Queue: 4 jobs
Job 1
Amino acid sequence: MVNNVQGPGSVGAALPSANSVSAVQGANKMAAAQAGAANPAQGANKTAAGQAAAAADAASGGANTQDRFLKLLVTQMKNQDPLNPMDNAQVTSQMAQLSTVSGIDKVNSTLKALSDSMSAGQAMSATSMIGRGALVPGSTMDLSKGQAVGGLDLAQGADSVKVLIKDGANNVVRTMQMGAQKPGVVPLAWDGMDDAGKELADGTYKISAEAVAGDKTSAATTLSFGMVSGVAPGTGGAKLDVGKLGIFNLSDVKQVL
């Protein structure tokens, strides 16, 4: 009795060739096209179904990558040479690489979802600031009916602080001595009077400040006052529309009035 023994190449020969597979696929596509031409409604339904499937495939790119890897690995193992099989260490290494990449993708997806959720929550919370005044970095004060509001942001305490208010021609119209101040935000109010006690016209004026601590004099950060008119989510968190002062990050707001 003679036993039939398959050689190393018989396994690969049992698999369909690429040309035969392509021929079958081409025939199937032609049949599908003819069916779609015979029945336009059915063809439209198939098109919609194909678009939905494509969208689902795009949304699950990581899962598809893992599936393709596993299919290739299984095919490789099926068609390996029985006399020279794949090394277990090689298979383990490939599986470990796939697991690492898949894990990183999942972590990145989770972090992005968490970041988007936090940004949306921050923007929603910031909507409570709409219609309220805020002090943000700036170098101007708007005088209206004898009132103007601004502020200073001191990184450290000062023995004395001097504020200069200038008109459009860059002339100093008012000098204000603020005395000793602690670190932090210092509100600033101006009654619209110049150094001679004359009432000045409404408009936009420039402000600057100097802080003296010991024998050192440094420029202090000035703050402008504006009304928050809108909030929108953005990169890095919520963005506040503070009228003509511009768009600011939520972290730029030093004080809400």
Job 2
Amino acid sequence: MSVDLNWKVDMETTMKTPPIVTAEEWEAARERLLVKEKEMTRARDALAAERRRMPWLEVEKEYAFDGPRGRVSLLDLFEGRRQLIVYRAFFEPGVFGWPEHACRGCSMVADQVAHLAHLNARDTTLAFASRAPLADIERVKARMGWTMPWYSMTDGFDADFGVDEWHGTNAFIRDGDRVFRTYFINNRGDEVMGGTWSYLDMTALGRQEEWEDSPEGYPQTRPYEWWDWHDEYADAEPAEGWLAKVEASGVRAKENARPLPASSEGGDTVRSSEPAGSCCSR
């Protein structure tokens, strides 16, 4: 039996809430919505696959940044890794909150950034860049508890990459000393950034897992296999028993584990051969 519930938000507003239903009715409603959830997941995977096929734009101009190690180049921002993601955060004179704080929206993005060890394990570096002097950047990082690399721009990097007037996230890849721009996200696209998967999905190489639809020759490993605790990636071998756990989960190679069309059955990821369990099962 459905019951309407009017909830007083304040003295002048009454919020019209959804009906109160039985457990069976609630589960049926969830199953109906799950079909759309799966469609969105598949669409997101397909979009990421198209990003991996975007043409590359070579960066021929030299750029300089001030960082903890002094004046560095765009190539230096990679920190030796193959991919680089740069978020343009607004922290400079004229921005609301200066000099105590960076832009409120940019600060929310910074608060959402996951532990960088997971990105680094996929040969990817994340860096922030702003117009503020390095001393101010280091001060606000310490105040807010942020640990990501954050550099001070010294030239026209922001104007050249579409982030001189608004925040945005640029992705790059390098081939030796040659640097290429591979993708760009801004406006509401930045709302979902911060998590490891969102960052990897915007890169040229993606998550680098076998189930992904990537061009031939792209680096890929089995799902779960590369995952680790953020303080143990430096270990030469995975934790004892982890690879056995991956095997037990029933994860299969790409040709045997392509996602099927959206379904209301099972979990969010439907594969041609369902795994016996997840990496989190006992």
Job 3
Amino acid sequence: MRDYMALYRISILADNFVKKPDLKAEHGFSCLIQSDRKNILFDTGTDDLFIKNAATMNIELYGIDNIVLSHGHYDHTGGVDAALTIAPRSILIAHQAARLPKFNYTPGKPVRYIGMPEKTIRALDHAAEEQRLVIVNQTEWQLCNGMKLLSLPEGSNLSPQWPFYRENLNGEKIKDKFEDELSLLLEGENTACLISGCSHCGLHHIIEKATQISSKPIKYVLGGTHLDDANDALLEQTTDILVRLGASCFFGHCTGMNGYARLQTRLGNLLAPLGVGNEIDFDL
């Protein structure tokens, strides 16, 4: 007899691409994970578009148990206030470093603030006052049986051209190692699924950590990869581990068109595009 149902439905509510008519895209990511244990909204996109897309897809959001923020960028946290309102019983979960100011320093371009919008920071403060905010400060955190959050303590090995910076507690701008980046591991009786919002830390690093803590082989990987401008060595590292696992991959958001095309040549039938309107059932 099963301790929990191994069936998870993942619905993409916000992404850079759409898969069905009457839905809208944005530069952002949000997905809903439904199971008999918990219903989790993983990221909230740039604003409240995820709610409008959910309505078009006939998906009800009132029963969300947890809102998980994968990291502190605007395109994953901009709809937090709307999410807390439409799911009034939900608990918001974020890493303690997610609200620190974050910036993009791309050479030849103006410095851009890419952290949480002011309205999101206010929503976090309000959630804390209502005892609806849980701060994660561990590299492994169990949501419930079959659902774990994971992060990398020191992020990834940063390239010299690394454009992502954040402020530390002293107000100094330092390279962002994304210790706040949370990925979600779903485990069933036989296999597991890994969900990552952007994989700034390096998808291969995240997968390696997930395989260490998972009690089941990871056979599905879903989300954003940030491999659009990856060099050949990084792309090879990533695809090698995916091929070795034999994992079916569903990639969108920051993967980009170029990144997806390059991954396709290496992953072949293991890869499928992700977009708003996808509703995927995983019987793990």
Job 4
Amino acid sequence: MITKKMLYFYWPIYSFRFILTELFFTEMDRYLTKKDCNNCYARPGCFVQRIKQNDEFFNLKKSHITYRKGETIVKEGTRVTEILYVTEGLLKVYIEGPERNIIIKVLTSHDFIGLTSLFGDDTFYFSATALKETRVCSIDRQAIKSLLTQCCEFSRELSSWYCENYNIMLTKCLNLGLRQLHGKLANTLLYLSREKFMAADIFSYITRKDLAELSGIATESVVRILSEFNNENIIELKGKRVEIKDMERLKIISQKG
């Protein structure tokens, strides 16, 4: 039998638990939602706008997940069960090393994560971390594979994606293996000066350590070479931001290594 005294004692505890539960599920709703393509807020800029209507794929419920800055989105060595499509945000893709990481590339809105698993090994051979708040659409791997065989427009889009990423990998190998320090950093700055990165205000989120891991050199070398480039009016440093002033000279440094 519950007495009045017991009620006074336990009521604040149960109230506190209730509030915590409500807050937890409210937060979960904010960071994990289920949507189909027909009622999705991200549809106007999504790849589905460029393919013909496919009711099976469009009606499929997909998980929309929000990651805070610094959160790990995928972990190297884990199994690929879903293909991730970045609807909004900025993230770095990197290989983890014993002493330092190597950033392979930076992804922005409308990029995919995990496509290489469609017809190959279903393992992530890289990790990915959000550079700022990032939203991804998590799509069943088999659904993407089926769409690829059914839709020519999507096949062409993925072919273009593969070609672009193949060229990025070749450039990365050249940068790490053959270029000297100045050439490596110059190549990284040229890579980050692409229109899609500048539109995302990339240098507000990239640290000097990130620049080092993109270039395959030490952070101290990045700081020193940036200062040299700044003194030679090749770039202009504004706090974290890097503004390229002489693109042609930077290209020459990158080519000569």
